[in-house]
Design a protein that fits this description.
Layout (H helix, E strand, L loop, with lengths): L6 H28 L5 H30 L3 H24 L7 H47 L15
Helix pairs in contact: 1-2, 1-4, 2-3, 3-4
Length: 165
C-alpha cells in the first residue's frame, strides 16, 4: 500500500495556512491607507478581489488538505483548479498592475503568496498525476483479478462460479 500524498505539497499548504492571515491583514491595512487616492474602478476591483480571494482561499486550502492527506483525486483536482484559475491570476494582477499604487510591503507579501501558489500548482499537478495513475492501475488489477475468478478453470464444466445448471 503505497502512500500517494505529497510531503512538499503538504508542507506548502501548512505554511500557507499560517501565511494567509498575515497576507490578508497586510493587504487590508495597505488598502485602507491607499483607498482615498485610488480611482473609483480600482476601489471596486480591489474590494471585490479581497472578498473573492478570501472565500476562495479558505475553500482551496480545505480541498488541498483533504485531497492530499486522504488521497482523494476530486478534492485535489478542485484544489489545483482553484489555485490555477482564480487565485494565481488575481495575485499576479495585484503584483504587477502599477495602477494600484503598490506599496513595497504589499509587493513583498504578494511575491511570497505568488510563490506559494506557483509551487502548489506544480506540486499538485505531479501529485494528481501520480494518484490518478496509481488508482487506474489498482482498478485495472482489480478488474483483471475479477475476470480471472470468473473464467472457467480446466477442471470446471464450463460454468462460471456461482452459476447453477
Amino acid at each position: 500500500c503505497e502512500i500517494l500524498s505529497s510531503l512538499p505539497l503538504q508542507m506548502s499548504l501548512y505554511f500557507n495556512v499560517y501565511f494567509f492571515p498575515f497576507w490578508w491583514l497586510i493587504t487590508v491595512a495597505i488598502l485602507y491607507l491607499k483607498y482615498p487616492v485610488l480611482s473609483d474602478y480600482y476601489k471596486f476591483i480591489l474590494v471585490t478581489i479581497m472578498i473573492l480571494v478570501s472565500l476562495t482561499e479558505l475553500i482551496r486550502l480545505y480541498l488541498g488538505y483533504v485531497g492530499n492527506l486522504l488521497e482523494k483525486v476530486p478534492e485535489l483536482a478542485g484544489f489545483w483548479l482553484l489555485t490555477l484559475l482564480p487565485q494565481l491570476p488575481v495575485i499576479l494582477f495585484l503584483l504587477f498592475n502599477e495602477g494600484l499604487k503598490i506599496h513595497s510591503l504589499e509587493r513583498a507579501v504578494h511575491i511570497v503568496f505568488a510563490s506559494f501558489l506557483s509551487f502548489q500548482v506544480i506540486a499538485a499537478f505531479f501529485t494528481l498525476k501520480r494518484m490518478v495513475n496509481t488508482l487506474a492501475t489498482r482498478f485495472r488489477l482489480t478488474e483483471f483479478h475479477r475476470l480471472e475468478e470468473q473464467r472457467p478453470g480446466p477442471g470446471n464444466s464450463g460454468l462460471a462460479p456461482g452459476s447453477s445448471s
